[in-house]
């Protein structure tokens, strides 16, 4: 997640192609290439990911969906999970 005031680096297409070619030819890992070029290995991983998946313009969302994105089925599923968990807790208490 970006921090307040964080700078985002832009790299030329030529540099990206050079790094990706070295990676694909096995001339270095993302970490070693990152050290060589002075770029974060995560940035290099991103370059490689975008090269391999050109149809994906953004990364898939990770984590819990925002409340406005939830459907009625999502709420039903959550309700069933809570019911099962409550039954599990009740059974645990009865064992004691």
**SSE run:** HHHH
The domain count comes to 2
Q: How many distinct helices?
A: 4
Q: Average pLDDT, to the nearest integer?
A: 86
Strand proportion, as a percent range, falls in under 5%
Low-confidence sequence ranges = none
Q: For the report, how would you describe the main beta sheet?
A: none
> How many distinct beta strands?
0
User: Which descriptor suits the 3D outline?
Assistant: elongated
CATH-derived topology of the largest domain: Arc Repressor Mutant, subunit A
Which class of the largest domain in CATH terms? Mainly Alpha
Secondary-structure-derived class:
mainly alpha
Tell me the span between the first and last alpha carbons: 45 Å
Radius of gyration: 23 Å
Helix percent reads 55-70%
- Assign the CATH architecture of the largest domain: Orthogonal Bundle
Describe it:
The protein has helices at residues 13-24, 30-37, 41-52, 72-95. Helix 1 (13-24) crosses helix 3 and helix 2 packs across helix 3. By secondary structure, the chain is mainly alpha-helical. The chain folds into 2 domains: 11-60, Arc Repressor Mutant, subunit A, CATH 1.10.10; 63-96.
Keywords:
96 residues; mainly alpha; Arc Repressor Mutant, subunit A
List the helices and strands and how they pair.
Blueprint: H1 13-24, H2 30-37, H3 41-52, H4 72-95
Helix pairs in contact: 1-3, 2-3
